[in-house]
């Protein structure tokens, strides 16, 4: 109710404009049906992310469905996100002013959003999701982020030598001994420098590194150091997968972040099975 009232107030027909300033084609909603988000200085990264999140139906519906009171600082960011999504969906204006949304970041703990500072969009996404997780508590949509974007990866260490653990022997012509630890994720970071497509980036993500020589893995179960492969595998894919293309790196000569402008292609249909734990183990069994 408060959201509908706010949109109606913004479109109050009593607003007067001088005839010289009256240019309806510049003030109204775009002919393509979209409403933009106004750049508050250097917030283009934020606007691009919010537009993408708005176009995820499950997430947008969950935000609208959160039971948030019209007042109080604890859930101010969720309330402002509802207002932003509501205006993007229903407004007849060309764009929505995000000033109140930017100010609401300070109300959910931490520093206010500096609108004059350019930020890596993945860095901002982590900040936004952290604040939304806290703001969604007690709204009936506590698991919204997890249900939409939450996946799981396995940190896996595969022993490449024959080891004995208890009464069982691993390796050789038998199954390798593996140590696994599962953790959640919202995004998968991918290297794009010198990569022709995200398929190459995903291959690198799951390739892992060899632990040998002076860097051997101390296998606690076997009680000795062994050659091993340390890698990440996706154990559970989220409903909506967010791939973070790592477009910034730190230049130690200039002592600042620089943009990576390498072209990186992506397919319209992405098969993620080869990068999952199940898919990788299937390929290894077939190659054995």
Automatic annotation (TrEMBL):
Q: Would you say which domain of life the source belongs to?
A: Eukaryota
Sorted alphabetically, the Gene Ontology cellular component annotations on this record are: cytosol; nucleus
Note the Pfam families from the entry.
UCH
Entry-linked InterPro entries: Papain-like_cys_pep_sf, Peptidase_C19, Peptidase_C19_UCH, USP, USP_CS
Q: Where is the USP domain?
A: 35-288
Q: Which GO terms describe its molecular function?
A: cysteine-type deubiquitinase activity
> Which protein, by its recorded name, is this?
USP domain-containing protein
